[in-house]
Amino acid sequence: MVVFAGQGDARRSMSLLWRADRPEERDRRPGPRPALSVDAIVAAAVAVADEKGMDALSMRAVGERLGRTAMALYTYVPGKNELLDLMYDAVHAELPTRYPDTGDWRAGLTDWARDTLEFQLRHPWVLRVSQARPVLGPHEYAGLDTLVRLLNGTGLDPAVLRRLVGTLSHFVRGCAGTVAEARQAAAATGEPDEEWWFARSALLGEVAPDFAERYPSLSAMEAASVPQPPDPSAADVPHLEREARRTFEAGLGVLLDGIEAAVRRAGAR
């Protein structure tokens, strides 16, 4: 189920995101530092979401992780809505903001896409946060700025780059979502990928003996597909995840080919 960020008090959320209104920032008097801080609460909340998923996130769960009551957190964070904004932005600080300036925009975008995929898989709960309403935090903006800087190397018009930011972001996010779901499928259903596929695909010949005639294009594609050689390093990776990662690499290559073609057309004009 999708979760919408930015549902808390706008001024309070934005002030917390940009560190303009944090208790530990306001109180600079000598003496012991407060036992809690916004950063400590956010870190605990991220740990809860990483380990147990978004559905387990609550002020009470975060408080218990810190050895405090939920009420103790409200001095620092007004509520769960504001906490979600802070969590989402905080983890985005993990994304690289600098890539080697080699002049090879394609290599840079490839590295960016792979880094972003792995980041989203470390924190799969971020995929539950809708992109319809961004958090507008400093680390989220830093990530966007990095992608735009890499795309600037193509020399394409800014209006085109704006759409490419969305295209690349949605592509990586979609692939990450499929990989994350592949990882969850066996645990959620109690059935490994291979058993699931074998049990159902084996029945297709029985329930749909005319499958090839009904779906000729799909059947021809599958028949002509060259089997992928086994990857020893991915022996323990679920089948669905392996396929999703192969799709990611193939799709990324096609997207970058398309950008390259657009660069050539722009140069010709």
What would your notes on this structure say?
The protein is mostly helical. It folds into two domains: 10-92, Orthogonal Bundle (Arc Repressor Mutant, subunit A), CATH 1.10.10.60; 99-268, Orthogonal Bundle (Tetracycline Repressor, domain 2). The protein contains 13 helices and no strands. The chain has helices at residues 10-17, 23-26, 38-52, 59-66, 70-73, 80-91, 105-122, 138-152, 158-189, 193-207, 211-214, 216-224, 239-268. The protein is flat and about 70 Å long. The model has no long low-confidence stretch (mean pLDDT 91).
Question: What's a concise summary of this model?
Answer:
The protein has 269 residues and is mainly alpha-helical. 65% of the residues lie in helices and 0% in strands.
Largest sheet: none
Structural class: mainly alpha
Uncertain parts: none
Task: Sum up the overall morphology in one term.
Answer: flat
Alpha-carbon Rg, integer = 23 Å
Beta-strand percentage range: under 5%
CATH architecture title of the largest domain: Orthogonal Bundle
